[in-house]
Design a protein that fits this description.
This protein has helices at 13-23, 70-79, and strands at residues 5-10, 26-31, 35-39, 46-51, 62-66, 86-90, 96-101, 107-112. It has 125 residues and is α/β, with parallel strands linked by helices.
Length: 125
């Protein structure tokens, strides 16, 4: 099995498209301001946005995007006006993470985990 895509809700798809393009995703589908799909700059995954009349309540969605040169990438995004809730921080689970939100409040974690993403020291045998 391979993960094809993740889709997040948005009240204003056009506003979200601009945001995710700023993050570096490449827009490949845009239909009538109700749906958009991106391809990630690395790997084979896609990411999409669909229009909703109301956002889900509660914890919502958390999206993780891995970036090898995380600190530099965050600095580039800050220079483009992207605001962060947490700047790159070493976490106890051996990932370095920066936290932000998209225009609809979906949580985004930009991170670098290296080999610890799939092979942490506590991995099940």
């Amino acid at each position: 099995m391979n993960l094809n895509q993740v889709t997040v809700p948005a009240l204003d798809v056009e506003k979200s498209v601009a945001f995710y393009k700023t993050l570096g995703l490449e827009l490949i589908v845009f239909s009538h301001s109700r749906y958009a799909r991106f391809v990630c700059p690395q790997g084979d995954a896609t990411f999409s946005i669909h229009e909703v009349e109301a956002l889900p309540q509660g914890c919502g969605v958390t999206i993780y995007f891995e970036e090898v040169d995380l600190d530099n990438y965050v600095e580039i995004l800050q220079n483009k006006g992207i605001l962060f809730n947490q700047l790159p921080t070493d976490m106890p689970w051996l990932w370095r993470e920066a936290h932000l939100e998209d225009p609809d409040g979906n949580q985004i974690i930009l991170y670098y985990a290296g080999e610890n993403r799939k092979d942490p020291p506590w991995k099940l045998k």
